[in-house]
Amino acid sequence: MLCAGTIGIAQADEAPQVSWLDRIEVTATPIPGTTIDAAQLPYMVQSATTAALSRGRSNNLSDLLQRRFVGVDGNDVQGSAFQNDLTFHGFRASALPGASQGVSVYLDGVRVNEPFADIVSWDMLPESAITAVTLMPGSNPLFGPNTLGGAVVLSTASGLTAPGLQGELTIGSGARKRLDASYGVAGGDGWHGFIAVTGFDENGWRDASEGRLGTLFGKVGRQGDDTDWSLSLLHGRSRLIGNGLLPDTRYTDEGPEPGLYRADRRAVYTSPDLTRNRTTLLTAQLDHRFDADTALHALAYSRVGRRDTVNGDIGEDYEAFVEECASGYAADGSALDAECEVARADAAALHTGALNTTQMRQQAQGLALNLSKQWGAHALSAGVTFDRGHVRYRQFARDGWVQPDRSVVADPDAERAFFSGVRGSTKTLGAFVADTWELDAATHLTAAVRWNRVVVDNILSTAEDGDRPRERFVYAKANPSLGLTHRLESGLTVYGSVAQNTRAPTAIELGCADPTQPCRLPTGLQADPRLEQIVSRTYELGARWSPWADSNATVLVYRADNRDDILFLRAPDTQLGYFDNVGRTRYQGIDAALHLRSGDWQWSAGYSYLDATYRSSGELLSGERVIALRPGLRIAALPRHNLKLGVEWQRDALTLGMGLRAVSGRVASGNEDGQVDNVEEGEAAPERIDIGTAGYALVDLQARWAITARVSLFARIDNVFDRQYATYAAVAEDVFPDGELARPQQSPVETGPARFLAPGVPRQYLIGVRWAL
After folding, report:
1. pLDDT score for 518
2. Mind listing the pLDDT tens digit for each residue in 668-677?
3. Left, alpha or beta for 90 (phi > 0: left; psi -120 to 50: alpha)?
4. Which residue among 219, 489, 498, 571 is least enclosed by CB atoms within 10 Å?
5. Of residues 587, 543, 578, 491, the one with CA closest to residue 102
6. Cα–Cα distance for residue pair 625/27, rounded to 1 Å
7. Buried b (16+ CB within 10 A) or exposed e, 306-316
């Protein structure tokens, strides 16, 4: 969906000894079929190539972005390596439905964020075929709607760029096994072909957290004197289990009490939490050069996919029973809580668990045309894009029972009942024009504008009402950008830019936007009042300097102001909530990076500072919590400080490296105001208590030995000192005191809000072999 065209990337030649710390020369532009020198770009560009994607340096693509790219952070909310919740400058590219997305991901010019919830299926990307990863910041309108905080641009290989047989085999902790292999061939008259496969299987480091996936990618094409074309096919399947958060501390009237996290970080709160994905993507591209200064680029794609989930949860009636009857029962069987309406004799019949399942079927198609022209000092581009997506989504619920290991099994006598669903389509029409004007040899002005019209049609269904009348929402806006770069005589390049872009609400957001009818995220869809589209305006100032070969430094200062940000607000039930516009938010900060190379040594340093705050007043709902928003209140889950250091030494066939990742604490969701419970009217607010995550620092080691010019061995140890840390925190109710299900009919329950944590990955080992024949 939302095809924005291909990205022209000029890479440095890659030798076997190229390391993760190498500086990569990039020229990139979101305009199809054109290439602009990096020195002319009015924004910071970060990139990596095939060497950095090796398992000797990263586990997968999302892990590479967290390790190497400045300004990128991750919340390991699901506990699965391929279901990460990534942020860049505070904007998300997440695998979780319901997260407020703001980063676009492009594969060979096709935007691969899913049509339904704009999520990124990291497990469906052909990592063994990717040759370059480029990250660009800001709300650049040329990347199409929904690009609020930046874009990740992925380029794949062909038989021309990656001939021969290449592969990598790795094994590691958690019974992890992975194979990546590719074969490319270049024939006569410009013909070429390429195929790549990936297979992955692991038990996971947490209980009941196994996962497996496979992808197949193929490309065929021909390069001619004036015309190039290619046709590629991607197919992927996965079965992943991510087991979410664990209760760390429960806050009761008697004081804080330890939760399940303290006893066993590998444990699971409830299970299963299974996601099955399947995707097929067909892409066709054509480039025609009319002359040395004029070119036409065309792109078309078609994608089909399905996503099925199974989630074991606490039964809603039982959760309400625990809360309302927590004080237990008297000797005569009467409830001690006035609001308790469940007799002791009836409590045993309440279903303690529920299995919630979802089915999603989706398809998307798109076309893009762009004409580029070098006209004197102007590099001109103009084009049109059209994208459409169709989604069918259904949710079912079945009563069940919680087992002693906190897994949920279905009641064989209970029916699998339809709960809610949606059938919807999204059509997006875009037109853009851009110009890079060379004012003089050292100064370039870049200007662009893109107009978008987005139409969303929804038909909601519920068990009570059946299909509801079709609803239509139309969003249209023209978004501009302007940037300037200037190279000083010292070699220092300074730049500045301002850009605006928009994101229209997705089907899940429009289908769950009524506070009077909250939904089960990401499932129940109950009502669809209109939401406003998000408008994001980004301001950037930066400088880059490359005083010596293989050495460079860059710094960026940015501010992004969002209007009508869309957030999921949890109603007074931890499984229900709704989406709403929340006024204004601001993401501002500093990125700085330094790369040095001298002899056998390479050094890398990256630092980012992020100040993410609400800029308007209102109320933020998070479970039982009602949080008063005010300008300056920090947004949850985003660290202020993020430091990445690396050093590598290479001598002949041996390479040794060490990396450090240090991250400051994060505000807990539901604790933004420093409280864990609501303050009753007329009562004095208790002393502030900040229960966010603590900061942490992780040290990683790697080694690589080139046996021959074509075969090498590698090993890696992550989190060498086995540091215990958490990447996300939230306030919720814990119904498993001491790891066992609360049963008020047997004994009173000490209720109270609890801090839930996403446990970070402990020490992990990995070894592998890489070949290029």
Report:
1. 57
2. 999 999 988 8
3. left
4. 489
5. 587
6. 48
7. bbebbbbbbbb
The answer to whether 157 touches 129, Cβ cutoff 8 Å, is yes
**DSSP of 411-472, one letter per residue?**
-TTS--EEEEEEEEEEEEEEEEEEEEEEEETTEEEEEEEEEEEEEEEEEEEETTTEEPPPEE
Report whether 545 contacts 492 (CB < 8 A).
Answer: yes
Amino acid 4: pLDDT: 45
Positive/negative CA dihedral, 203, 209, 210, 216? negative
pLDDT in tens, 714-749: 999 999 999 999 999 999 889 999 889 999 999 999
- Cα separation, 162 vs 185, in Å, equals 8
CA 545 to CA 105: how far, in whole Å? 28
State how far Cα 11 lies from the chain centre.
25
Interatomic CA distance for residues 135 and 176, integer angstroms: 28
Domain 38-311+360-772 class in CATH? mainly beta
**What string of H, E and C letters represents the secondary structure of 47-97?**
EEEHHHHCCCCCCCHHHHHHHHCCCEEEECCCCCCCCCEEEECCEEEECCC
128's tokens: 């063994």
Give how far the C-alpha of residue 463 lies from the chain's centroid of Cα atoms, to the nearest Å: 32
DSSP string, 587-632: EEEEEEEEEEEETTEEEEEEEEEEEEEE-S-EEEEETTEEEEE-TT
Sheet with 130-137, edge to edge strand ranges:
46-49, 130-137, 150-156, 103-107, 110-111
- 295 is written with which tokens? 């070119």
Helix, strand, or coil (residue 145): coil
Parallel, antiparallel, or unpaired: how do β-strands 72-75 and 753-759 relate?
unpaired
Q: Which two tokens stand for residue 662?
A: 């240090």
Distance CA 648, CA 643 (A): 17
What SS3 class is residue 127?
helix
The 10s digit of each residue's pLDDT in 122-156 is: 999 999 999 999 999 999 999 999 999 999 999 99
Helix (H) or strand (E) holding 379: strand 378-402
Alpha helices in 142-222 (DSSP H): none
**Residue 582, phi then psi, degrees to nearest 5:** -125, 35
For the chain, give the number of residues: 773
Q: Find the angle CA(669)-CA(673)-CA(679) to the nearest 5 degrees.
A: 110
Q: For the chain, which ranges sit under pLDDT 50? A: 1-29, 521-528, 573-574
Measure Cα distances from 38 to 10, 42, 44, 97, 608 in Å: 9, 9, 9, 35, 22
Strands 466-467 and 443-462: antiparallel
Comparing CA positions, the residue from 654, 651, 659 lying closest to residue 712 is 654
**Angle CA 284–290–294, to nearest 5:** 90
Question: What CA–CA distance (Å, rounded) separates 198 from 702?
Answer: 22
Beta carbons within 8 Å of 36's beta carbon, 6+ residues apart:
8, 27, 28, 29, 379, 436
Q: Which of 425, 297, 428 is nearest to 2 (CA)?
A: 428
Bridge partner list, 276 = 239, 308
Q: What is the pLDDT of residue 302?
A: 98
For 323, phi then psi, to 5°, come to -70, -45
Report the SS3 class of residue 263.
helix
Distance CA 157, CA 498 (A): 33
